[in-house]
Amino acid sequence: MKQSINIQDNFLNQLRKESIPVTVYLTNGFQIRGLIRGFDNFTIIIDSDGRQQMVYKHAISTFTPQRPVSLMPQATDPASAE
């Protein structure tokens, strides 16, 4: 059975692993700028101005990273795996 691709988890994981600065826009118009430190199905942890904040995903409108995020998995060369 083929696994389905979870774009949200891939996107957040790349932001976290590469420590890409991000602006998080909340549904109330507030903005949080910082680094994603972790996430689960319902929340994200953001380091912002030296403070950690837990934000519920249902309160988030948009993520805007400072640079492009690659969502494509790195292709492995079958010949190099031997």
Terminal CA distance reads: 25 Å
| Rg, Cα atoms, Å | 15 Å
Structural class: mainly beta
Helix content: 10-25%
InterPro entries: Hfq, LSM_dom_sf, Sm
Family: Belongs to the Hfq family.
GO molecular function, one term: RNA binding
Keywords: RNA-binding, Stress response
List the helices and strands and how they pair.
Blueprint: H1 7-17, E1 22-26, E2 31-39, E3 43-48, E4 51-56, E5 60-65
Antiparallel strand pairs: 1-2, 1-5, 2-3, 3-4
Structure characterization notes:
With 82 residues, the protein is mostly beta strands. The chain is built from one helix and five strands. Strands 4-3-2-1-5 form a five-stranded antiparallel beta sheet. The model has no long low-confidence stretch (mean pLDDT 88). This is RNA-binding protein Hfq. Homohexamer. It comes from Paenibacillus lutrae.
Q: What does this entry show, briefly?
A:
The protein contains 1 helix and 5 strands. By secondary structure, the protein is mostly beta strands. Strands 4-3-2-1-5 form a 5-stranded antiparallel β-sheet.
